[in-house]
Amino acid sequence: MAENIILDGQKLAWHRDRVQAWLRGERIAPITIDCSLTRRCSYRCMYCYGQLQANDEKKMTREVILRFLTDAADIGVKAVSFVSDGESTCSPHLYDAILHGRAQGLDIALGTNGYLLKEARLEDILPALTYLRFNVSAGEVARYKEIMGAPPDGFDKVCSVIRRSVNIKRRRNLPVTIGLQMVLMPQFTDQILPLARLGKELGADYLVIKHCSDDEDGSLKVDYSRYHALTGLLQEAEALSTKDYLVRAKWSKLMSGGKREYDHCFGPPFILQISGSGLVAPCGMLFNSKYRRFHMGNIAEKSFREIWQSDRYWEVINFIASEKFDAHTMCGTLCLQHKVNEFLWDLKHNRIDFPEAGASPPQHVNFI
Prior knowledge:
The protein contains twelve helices and ten strands. It has helices at 16-23, 62-75, 94-103, 122-125, 141-148, 154-172, 192-202, 231-238, 251-254, 304-309, 311-320, 338-348, and strands at 32-35, 79-82, 107-112, 129-135, 177-183, 206-210, 246-249, 271-274, 279-281, 297-298.
């Protein structure tokens, strides 16, 4: 597991053709798209970035969702993860979307708090998923309810869904990866070890402990300097790893101080985000209506293929990659595209050579 899964990095070494096409100035299809099927959520997490992403919501009907997935596959997208600014289990179309996307040849993943995930549908969807990741940021009942804004039965219900998922995977020998994700704010440190132990008990494949992103105004008040004091505790959690269970902190982001080394944004052509409202934007940091200048269209109003082919899409892509855009001040911290941006910035500025891809691709290679 530890040698074959990348939880703190990027996988562009295995997508050389697309990177080289981008370097030549060609219009490329994203490799990965993160999207949600709704902006609604069943929880109210203390660290939720979704509250900062409000925009005009359109109706994400079954027809709209399936058309988007077909378009994505047709233009060359390789993977779609239902992870964005909403909880996709709140959509009645989630299960159809997973099965349709897989039938189109896409790698499909789901990130969820798990509360509304129907156990009766797990047998259907687990064979179609590359990974299923549960967002669980506490390992004890009372703190789980407090941190995640969950209903009183949330902790026990989600643990039941995770156990059921693991049992189905093992019984059917499915390749799907079942993981847990902790969004760590410095005030949640008491939950690092309880959650690491819980993940092992539940039979998850991994627990990843990640930073909390914030916007350029610091609305969530994340004190990035406090992460440095957690090194020993995070190492203690990682020491709970076994040959069947991996605990991994996203060290590069946790220890970054919330800073970035690149000046412009090169990542969105490779890894794009779509809001649960249907809005297409370079990234979730720019979903909010106040960033309309960066909005490319809405899949509820126009097909994704049309949006991707439009001059508007490429005007935005080119703007954020230009001297006119300052990644240090014009968007939030440590975004989804951060590791991809670091790699592309260094590659484009000849600071690194293109690395040789390993003989065996890592797990989830199309989720870059």
